[in-house]
């Protein structure tokens, strides 16, 4: 199908290089520090504005979970009123609800694509897009900037960091764990003893600013949500153990999980770990290898659109 005013955008996953909760804020949210990096694992969105068709989002089934792309369309129309209906075709590769930011990246990609459909002089600057993004999810503004950044506040305060010249490879295992109201449930399982002062995240950021590669490992990449999963029966423990058995030197949790990962600067070693891991875990566990960092998002023309 050929559609007028169609754009394609590839939206990257992210991993958290450690995550810290500093405490609960007066507004009820938690103060966080984390370094996030995009990785070379992407969903693909194709957006069209065809006035002969109604709004539609195809290619993604979230069950009873809210579709953040729909929220992005609503937020965009509130900020930038316009009558044109929008059709979104999604090809998913990033595990859903895995702690890899797939939904947030889709939101950011939707905003970037919609912005690209406007005439150049009418396009919004990054700050304005970030303000819209922050109303939808705390991770969303990150995807509008540098591939590597320090996030603070509730996660919406983004400080771009230099992109390392040395490519690392991330091996990820994403178990299919259905946890209703995942983020709220996990935050509810956090205890004050899991709070920290943000110094680990600041140390990673400082090393990257100096042009170096941090000495990654379980201490530097500690994540308080790991203890929360333990209190909920520890359903990710077996996958962690399998990743270590497959040759991972250490294992870390991305975001609120349940994706666990390891890093190596050797592509062949990453492939060997992933191959061995596939033999050790059920087929319901998604295994992915990707370079880190991945690239940012750029809207491209998309003339051939397949629902």
Keyword list:
Ribosomal Protein S5, domain 2; 307 residues; Alpha-Beta Plaits; 2 domains; alpha+beta
Written overview of the protein:
The protein is α+β, with helices and mostly antiparallel strands and 307 residues long. The protein has two domains: 6-161, Ribosomal Protein S5, domain 2; 168-292, Alpha-Beta Plaits, CATH 3.30.70. 27% of the residues lie in helices and 25% in strands. The protein contains eight helices and eleven strands. It has helices spanning 68-79, 102-116, 126-134, 182-188, 199-209, 225-231, 237-245, 267-280; strands spanning 6-24, 30-48, 56-58, 87-91, 148-152, 157-160, 168-174, 252-253, 260-264, 286-292, 300-301. The strands form two sheets. Strands 1, 2, 3, 4, 5, 6 and 11 form a seven-stranded mixed β-sheet that branches. Helix 1 runs parallel beside helix 2.
Largest sheet: 7 strands, mixed
Please tally the β strands and state the result.
11
The percent range for strand residues is 25-35%
Order of helices and strands, N to C?
A: EEEHEHHEEEHHHHEEHEE
Write a brief structural summary.
By secondary structure, the protein is an alpha+beta fold.
SSE arrangement:
Blueprint: E1 6-24, E2 30-48, E3 56-58, H1 68-79, E4 87-91, H2 102-116, H3 126-134, E5 148-152, E6 157-160, E7 168-174, H4 182-188, H5 199-209, H6 225-231, H7 237-245, E8 252-253, E9 260-264, H8 267-280, E10 286-292, E11 300-301
Parallel strand pairs: 3-4
Antiparallel strand pairs: 1-2, 1-11, 2-4, 2-5, 5-6, 7-9, 7-10, 8-9
């Amino acid at each position: 199908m050929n559609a007028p005013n169609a754009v394609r955008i590839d939206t990257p996953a992210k991993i958290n290089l450690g995550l810290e909760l500093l405490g609960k804020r007066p507004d009820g949210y938690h103060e966080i520090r984390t370094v996030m990096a995009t990785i070379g694992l992407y969903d693909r969105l194709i957006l069209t504005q065809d006035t002969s068709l109604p709004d539609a989002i195809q290619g993604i089934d979230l069950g009873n979970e809210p579709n953040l792309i729909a929220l992005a369309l609503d937020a965009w129309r509130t900020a930038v009123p316009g009558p044109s209906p929008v059709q979104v075709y999604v090809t998913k590769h990033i595990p859903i609800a895995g702690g890899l930011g797939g939904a947030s990246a889709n939101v950011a990609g939707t905003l970037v694509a919609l912005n690209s459909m406007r005439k150049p002089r009418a396009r919004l600057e990054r700050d304005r897009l970030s303000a819209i993004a922050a109303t939808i999810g705390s991770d969303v503004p990150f995807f509008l900037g540098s591939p590597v950044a320090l996030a603070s506040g509730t996660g919406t305060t983004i400080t771009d960091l230099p992109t390392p010249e040395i490519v690392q490879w991330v091996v990820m295992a994403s178990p299919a764990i259905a946890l209703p109201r995942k983020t709220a449930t996990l935050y509810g399982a956090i205890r004050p003893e899991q709070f920290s002062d943000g110094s680990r995240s600041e140390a990673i950021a400082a090393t990257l600013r100096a042009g170096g590669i941090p000495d990654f490992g379980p201490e530097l990449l500690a994540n308080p949500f790991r203890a929360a999963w333990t209190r909920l029966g520890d359903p990710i423990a077996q996958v962690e153990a399998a990743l270590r058995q497959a040759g991972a030197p250490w294992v870390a949790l991305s975001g609120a999980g349940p994706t666990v990962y390891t890093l190596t600067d050797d592509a062949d070693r990453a492939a060997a770990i992933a191959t061995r891991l596939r033999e050790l875990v059920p087929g319901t566990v998604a295994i992915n290898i990707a370079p880190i960092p991945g690239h940012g998002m750029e809207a491209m023309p998309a003339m051939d659109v397949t629902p």
